[in-house]
């Protein structure tokens, strides 16, 4: 009894002396607007969507300063910054290193006057992604590339069919009264070239850089000139009309036998960074899924006469 009385006195003093801190008032929940059932469910689903991952890695295309050294590339797997697939059939493959190709042949040096200039071809090579042998990695492009030098700079360009190290190529923006007799690899406006010339690396707008006829072994034909414009036949046999001040390269793109290569096996496509399609695109031989059943064995219902053994 004495112990119980002491405990009661202790608890009573504790309750009278100790004061609990005041709790902060929680605001009442804001009611959702009156929406129909489907819209309300959609709003709740949108609240659960995770935000896209913020990438701060420097992209290889965001470099401002030009360099002839290979630049590391980051694989995307055909996905954009939100993580969703935008281009299907891409994934895996060998590591790649990108070489910046200058598609604008009439790019003058800083402080230089816009006059014709020449460049010397230093090397013509296959464009691998990692190392020198062609079997080391998948290519960044189907055509060969050439390292040219002129003045105080070097740059990579798309090589033509018969371009060799030591060749001198000319770049000019002048359009004269008479058509020029250009050599293979030279870059001229369409207005300066004679009708019937084979061209490649064609611009769609003056000064924008080559956007057409850049694949291996392709070439276009300058058909005619009409009122300051030029009609060009593309490799797809379509006719394209551009301004005669658009620059093109004389000749055919290198690596003509690119379309004759044999892949040989599915694994090589994976080396090139190409993923397989769905199962509907694959030919099935009857083993997978037993979709194609073999024919049952034939039974003979013909009573063949027995040949008695001759004694």
TrEMBL record:
Domain Large ribosomal subunit protein uL2 C-terminal: from-to ranges: 182-301
SMART domains on file: Ribosomal_L2, Ribosomal_L2_C
Domain of life: Eukaryota
Compartments where found: Mitochondrion
SUPFAM superfamilies: Nucleic acid-binding proteins, Translation proteins SH3-like domain
Family: Belongs to the universal ribosomal protein uL2 family.
Name by which UniProt lists this protein: Large ribosomal subunit protein uL2
